Amino acid sequence: MSRRWINWGTGILATTCWLSTSAGADRQLTYDPAARVMIAPAGQAVSAEKRKLQFYDQAGKVTATRELQGNESVTFPVGGGNVIGIMRYHDNSPSTLTPVTFDLSDFSGKQLYRIENPKFSSVVISPTGTAIVGLDGVEGLPQSTLHFFDQGGKEVASLSVEYYQGGQFSGDGSLFVFATAKDGVLAYTAAGKASAGFGQGSVFDLSADGRTVVIWHQGTLRLYVDGKRRASVSTDEQIRALAVSTQGRHFGWASPQRAVVYAVGSDSIVCEITPSLPESNFRSLAISDDGKSFAVGEDVDYGKKVPAEQRHVRGRALAYDFSGRIIAQKDVQYEEWNARIPAVRFLADGETLTVMTRQETHFLQLPIEHTAD
Predict the structure, then answer these.
(1) Tens-digit pLDDT profile for residues 82-138
(2) What is the CA radius of gyration of the chain?
(3) Closest CA to 202 of 214, 219, 184
(4) Residue 292 pLDDT
């Protein structure tokens, strides 16, 4: 898998264009592969390039712009959210990393609070902005300290960890789940109190309230509900993506040639698919909040049979209902590629599927008869 934990909100942007913004129509955000883009749960967007930060509403209108200095770094919530963080360092030398200020801003560009002379040099932000965790070094160090802050920017707890490997908040910001090489995957409340331990693993995903956690480690997928192990699945396939629905009712995984979705409770398979084309392989997986559909991103790769410049240049995103019927499809082309492209994700409305590449994000409206309750 391309990263240790599920992080959808990576992308790119320099010169931006939002197309087809009429109500109910599929729309598209295009950009140059030289910056980063995050899509919020409600469909707004924020772009960060070297010298500029721009905020967009659901229709693609720029609502705020902020100039970025050379010594400022932008952080998005893992999985997307409604806030962003801006860290300013003493200078722009990557070997120094001496922080001067940390600002948390909302999607209007308004500063929510500032931390002066922070004890941390990198940060994980909750999607809601109600909590952050700062790290006083870089991942993989023998000893690091995690600093927990509340929604006003006040430090409420600190925790010493060994060989920190990365983490993320639950969607509601109540739980922080992280991995260490020494103690495995751990869950702490936003206030910095121990909640649960899940054993070894570094690839994981969790539901919005953090009650459902799925962990992949050495050929075994483990499901936990309320901190207790519920089920496990073993496979010798290479797992590229994990997904847990927002409500925690479904979870799934994707290998290059198979994607499987399970129901939490019965822990039975509700749908299993293979790539739509012989040359395709799965790269991403998402499960809708309403528990009625899931989506996969496929990259088309002809392997060594073609020149290198003809590999990883097109892909496909497909949404399925749980009977295995295709309900939406989008073919994409790209000049720049990474191992998670095309990346798929459902917005909070349950009716919109986003398909992200290094150059564009498509917003696909799912059939109303499918999404309606």
Answers:
(1) 999 999 998 765 445 789 999 999 988 899 999 999 999 899 999 999 999 999 977
(2) 20
(3) 184
(4) 87
Q: Yes or no: say if 25 and 365 are a contact pair by the CB < 8 Å rule.
A: yes
pLDDT above 90: percentage of residues in the chain: 62
Q: Phi, psi (5° rounding) for residue 329? A: -150, 140
Alpha carbon separation from 333 to 31, 125, 274, 307, 311 (Å, rounded): 13, 32, 21, 17, 11
State the pLDDT at residue 25. 57
Alpha helix segments (H runs only) across 233-331: none
Contact 243, 252 (CB under 8 A): yes
Q: Do the strands 212-217 and 220-225 form a parallel or antiparallel pair, or are they unpaired?
A: antiparallel
Say what the pTM is.
0.87
User: Cα(22)–Cα(185) distance, rounded to whole angstroms?
Assistant: 44
- Both tokens of residue 278? 């012989």
Token reading at 173: 């910001």
pLDDT tens per residue across span 150-166: 999 999 999 999 999 99
Peptide bond into 94 cis (omega under 30): no
Spatial distance between the Cα atoms of 236 and 231, rounded to a whole number of angstroms: 17
Helical segments of 188-283, H only:
none
The SS3 of residue 15 is: coil
Interval 281-313: pLDDT, tens: 999 999 997 778 999 999 999 888 888 888 888
Find out whether 206 and 170 touch, Cβ atoms under 8 Å: yes
Structure tokens at 364: 């696909």
- CB contact at 8 A, 231 and 223: yes
Return d(Cα 93, Cα 96) in angstroms, integer. Answer: 6
Cβ neighbours of residue 256 closer than 8 Å, sequence gap 6 or more: 237, 238, 240, 281, 282
How far is 317 from 329, CA to CA, in rounded Å?
A: 6
User: Is pLDDT at 55 greater than 50 in this prediction?
Assistant: yes
Query: Which tokens belong to 325?
Result: 């019927």
The Cα–Cα gap between 348 and 285 comes to: 16
Q: Write the pLDDT tens digit of every residue in 239-268.
A: 999 999 999 999 999 999 999 999 998 889
CA neighbor of 204 nearest in space, from 242, 162, 256, 231: 242
Residue 18, SS3?
Answer: strand
Q: For residue 229, which amino acid is it? A: R
